[in-house]
Structure formats: C-alpha cells, structure tokens
C-alpha cells in the first residue's frame, strides 16, 4: 500500500494530500483508502458493499478526479464507503480504470463519521511519475 501525507499549507478549509505509490493501481487504491479513512472509521461500517467501477479519461489526473468523485457520489447516494478491492489502470492516453471494490454501509447508529468531503477539486491536482513509482496531489472540498 502506498503512503499518504496530509499537506497543511495547501488549502485552508479543505483537505490536501500527497500520495506516493509503487504503481498506478496502488496509487488509486491508496487514494480510496485515504478517502474512506477521512470520511468514517472504516471499522464501524456495517455489512458488505460491492461495486464494479469502469471509467476512461484523457489524463491520469482526470481519471483520479473522476474515481474519487465516484466514491464520494456512492457514499452520498447509496450510503456506502468503498475502501478495498482490485484496481487496474491501463493505457497511455486515454487511460482506463476497472475496479472491483468492497466496503460497507454507513449506519448512523453505528458508524463513526469523521469528515464530509463534498468534492474533489482541480486545485493543484496532479499525477506524475517519480523515481520508484507515482505521486498524486489531491485537494478535497470538505
């Protein structure tokens, strides 16, 4: 699993991350885990939830934007948090993502809520190759 560093000096009212990972699948999986952990205590989710996610974008940063946006939408619309699974990212523009994700349902009586990310922003959004892997910068509107 990759690593996530919260960046305190990027956005005052938002949450900013720098994510490092060995490959693109790990980068997207690490971002999903970070989003889940920001939103709830994953250990307090109830039951099982599953989703098959497929998407295409012309650039990797836009693919990450769409992926995290989809996870936020599923939390809001379906009451589920998806924080693990298998993810494949392929292509060299356009890029294709296919994921089979698992997680759990939010139960207001049981689930510990943390923050309410509303959207991914384009502010400083980036995905780039670095020595030994990949790095992303993401800012979420809280």
Describe this structure in words.
The protein has 142 residues and is an alpha+beta fold. Helix content is 25%, strand content 44%. The protein is built from 2 helices and 8 strands. The chain has helices at 24-39, 60-78, and strands spanning 3-6, 14-21, 46-57, 80-91, 95-105, 119-120, 126-130, 133-141.
Distance between the termini: 25 Å
- Low-confidence sequence ranges: none
Strand elements, count: 8
Shape label: globular
Structural class by sheet pairing and helices:
alpha+beta
Q: What is this structure's SSE topology?
A:
Blueprint: E1 3-6, E2 14-21, H1 24-39, E3 46-57, H2 60-78, E4 80-91, E5 95-105, E6 119-120, E7 126-130, E8 133-141
Antiparallel strand pairs: 1-2, 2-8, 3-5, 4-5, 6-8, 7-8
Brief synopsis:
By secondary structure, this protein is of the alpha+beta class. It contains 2 helices and 8 strands. The model has no long low-confidence stretch (mean pLDDT 94).
């Amino acid at each position: 699993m990759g690593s996530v560093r919260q960046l305190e000096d990027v956005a005052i009212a938002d949450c900013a991350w720098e994510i490092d990972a060995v490959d693109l699948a790990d980068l997207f999986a690490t971002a999903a885990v970070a989003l889940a952990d920001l939103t709830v205590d994953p250990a307090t989710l109830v039951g099982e939830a599953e989703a098959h996610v497929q998407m295409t974008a012309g650039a990797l940063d836009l693919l990450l934007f769409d992926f995290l946006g989809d996870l936020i939408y599923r939390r809001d619309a379906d009451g589920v948090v998806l924080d693990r699974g298998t993810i494949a990212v392929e292509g060299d523009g356009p890029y294709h993502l296919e994921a089979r994700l698992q997680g759990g349902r939010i139960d207001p009586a049981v689930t510990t809520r943390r923050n309410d990310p509303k959207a991914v922003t384009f502010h400083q959004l980036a995905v780039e190759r670095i020595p030994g892997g990949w790095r992303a910068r993401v800012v979420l509107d809280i």
